[in-house]
Specification:
The protein has 138 residues and is α+β, with helices and mostly antiparallel strands. The protein has one domain: Roll (Archaeosine Trna-guanine Transglycosylase, Chain: A, domain 4). It is 24% helix and 20% strand. The chain has four helices and four strands; from the N terminus they run αβββααβα. Helix 2 crosses helix 3.
Length: 138
């Protein structure tokens, strides 16, 4: 079973369901996969490629944080060389602790994402075929 690592400060929030989303630079699985979390097994419910700004501004609470500013502060602490840029495309992982009911607000979450004006993803060179960056070129 693969591991989905978290900073120690988030362990309790993951275990008690206050953190049900994480943004990562790579994918850790597909919906339905089970991953080892901090003392629990996590079930992936949703995985998608989103602009970091969407997560910071709209879904910081699912990351277990109190505000967009707190999300940005934590992101910059974790990624000191690649600091927060709202257009950076990241992999969103929505999860639940195994044995708990499926996420009930998924429909509202997806409606909200669909209504948000997309942030133009950053573009790179030939490694991204001159299209939107898929996050694997840096």
């Amino acid at each position: 079973m693969n591991v989905l690592p978290f900073l120690e400060e988030f362990h309790e929030k993951v275990r008690d369901g206050r953190k049900t989303m994480t943004a990562r630079s790579k994918t850790y699985g597909v919906p339905g996969d089970r991953l080892r979390g901090p003392g629990v097994v996590l079930v992936l419910e949703y995985v998608a490629h989103w602009p970091l700004g969407t997560i910071a501004n709209e879904f910081y609470h699912l990351e277990g944080l109190e505000s967009p500013e707190e999300f940005i502060e934590v992101w910059n602490r974790i990624h000191p060389r690649k600091t927060y840029n709202p257009a950076t495309m990241v992999w969103v992982h929505r999860f639940r602790v195994d044995g708990t009911p499926p996420v009930s607000d998924m429909g509202r979450m997806l409606e909200r994402v669909a209504s948000i004006k997309e942030v133009e993803p950053k573009r790179h060179g030939p490694q991204c075929n001159d299209g939107p960056c898929k996050g694997d070129c840096q």
